[in-house]
Amino acid sequence: MIFVLPIFTCLIFITYLKLSFFSMNSIFYFADLLFDEFSLFLILMSCFVIYVSFMFSLSNYSWLSCLVLIFMLLICCVVFVTDNMFLLYLFYEASLIPILYIIIKWGSYPERSVRSIMLLLYTSIFSFPFLYVIFCMWSCSGTFSFSILANFSNTSVFFSLLIFFSFGVKLPIYGLHFWLPIAHVEAPTFGSIILAGVLLKLGGVGLVRFSCLIDLLRLKLCLLGYLFLFLTYVTLVCCFQSDFKRLVAYSSVSHIISVPLMLLSSSFVGYKGLISVIFLHGLSSPLLFMLVGVLYSTFFTRQHVLMRGIVCFSPLLAFILVLSFFFTLSAPPFPSFLAEVMFSISSIFLWIPRILFISLFLFLSIVYNLLWLSSSVFLNQDSQQNYRFSASFSILSPLLLSLFFLPCLFSVLFFMVF
User: Fold this and answer.
1) Which of 67, 115, 337, 360 gives 332 a disulfide partner, CB atoms 3.0 to 4.6 angstroms apart?
2) Separation between Cα atoms, residue 74 and residue 90, nearest integer Å
3) pLDDT by residue (tens digit) across 47-61?
4) 260 burial type by CB count under 10 A (0-12 exposed, 13-18 middle, 19+ buried)
5) pLDDT digits (tens, 9 = 90+) for 249-259
6) What is the domain count for the chain?
């Protein structure tokens, strides 16, 4: 059973790699970039994230978790490569089934069933009106194909807002994010890895795929101030979080707001940065949730002020925490630094007073990242406790896998995007 998921993911990736390279025409035309390299990045990221999640779940969960992960991988592959609008929406909604099953089956709190129903209702209410958009498009053009609907230019502001909020609920943007902390708190660690690394990226993929049907100019006038304001506000919220898992969840919300901002810039640099942010966030956020699970198994708490002196009893874990800190902070030489630069450059096309909001966003990001790093790694250890890091196979193998394979993924991103 250990070898089922890796073999399956390798077959999917190799098959799509062959099809993708045979169908490439020009990497400088955005449509080719969208349907070829972008899908290739996402499938590579999904295979990596789901395999790490599988390795993390080996010791505590059964073969049923492997089937759930395979089902999730199939759903994501269909969403990433399909050219049919209705199939994309169908599998986009079906992606909730694995995460709901993971929360209900392996969640650690008694109220997980009620919160799973809240998660289902919250995401369905905002995405269900999108069916109206789909069938209106079909009644006007007689097809669900993106290649034909790309020439459809009669989208109203109402349709644009429906499309934006339908996919924005799974990014999620601030205001539609209330289900995310609930889902992360209730889910086990391997469920949080899938949720952050794969499920949240489906919203960004939907926005990119439907960008040809969105009136970006009018949408920019409606949402630009809102997105810039809450870009800084949700980063401020992260500074007041004591629960490490909730802090990582809210940091995902703060970073992912840059995706619609770069989409609204309507620039080629913005599209490149958008792809980079989605790809890199799909790697950094699961790494942080994996570290949260490792620290919880050591300290039996998620309060980062109680996680102290890791460098004293586990220098390897402290080293990985420091690396993840610089990766999340988008510091050079990590590729996330280039993604942040692209985000800043693309903001020039949006709004000149962006400097204030971008500066506050960067400063507050440094504040809350330094908060959890200093408290967990560099504070003095409690003398009454004798903590030990259990380097079991299910814990050590995902950490080492991340250390060895993340540079390979970074090089793929560098040579194919930058």
Assistant:
1) 337
2) 13
3) 888 888 887 777 666
4) buried
5) 888 888 888 88
6) 1
